[in-house]
Structure formats: C-alpha cells, structure tokens
C-alpha cells in the first residue's frame, strides 16, 4: 500500500478527522491559522513515527529516551 491512512484523530483542534496521505511524495498541509495543521503533522504523524522508531531500540535505550504521549487516533494504517 502506498498510503498512510489516519482514522479518527482528535489532537487539539482536530475533531475526529480521517485522512489519507500518499507515501513517497511531498505533501503540503495548508489552511487557516488554528485549523490543526501542526497537530496533524507534529502531534500525530511525527509522534507515531517516533514511537515506531523507539520500539526498535533496546530496552536500555528506550528507558533513557523521552517518550511522547501516543497520538489520539482510532487507527493508523500502513504506516511502515
């Protein structure tokens, strides 16, 4: 699959949003101030990718990392 599908994200300004983002392409998020662009990019997508990356480290390394809270989503499909 060549898409990242996020279902039911509810971070900050986002209220139960579903979105499909193509992989391997440059994607630009635009919109009005306060529309949830940063919440989607940094608090949902980046937090999930950091979580997946941190799971690949040894438990000793994981213990010393600062953990971000998991994003508030119902489901994220085909992230890897």
Automatic annotation (TrEMBL):
Q: Cellular location of this protein?
A: Cytoplasm
What are the BP-aspect GO terms? DNA repair
One Gene Ontology molecular-function label: nuclease activity
GO CC annotations on file: cytoplasm
Superkingdom of origin: Bacteria
| Family under the similarity heading | Belongs to the ABC transporter superfamily. UvrA family.
PANTHER family from the entry?
DRUG RESISTANCE ABC TRANSPORTER, UVRABC SYSTEM PROTEIN A
Question: What's the protein name?
Answer: UvrABC system protein A
Q: What is the lineage of its organism?
A: Bacteria, Bacillati, Bacillota, Bacilli, Bacillales
């Amino acid at each position: 699959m060549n898409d990242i599908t996020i279902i039911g994200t509810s971070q900050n300004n986002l209220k139960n949003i579903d979105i499909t983002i193509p992989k391997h392409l440059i994607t630009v998020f635009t919109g009005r101030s306060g529309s949830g662009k940063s919440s989607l990019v940094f608090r949902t997508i980046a937090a999930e990718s950091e979580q997946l990356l941190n799971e690949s480290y040894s438990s000793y390394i994981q213990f010393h990392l600062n953990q971000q809270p998991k994003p508030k989503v119902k489901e994220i499909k085909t992230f890897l």
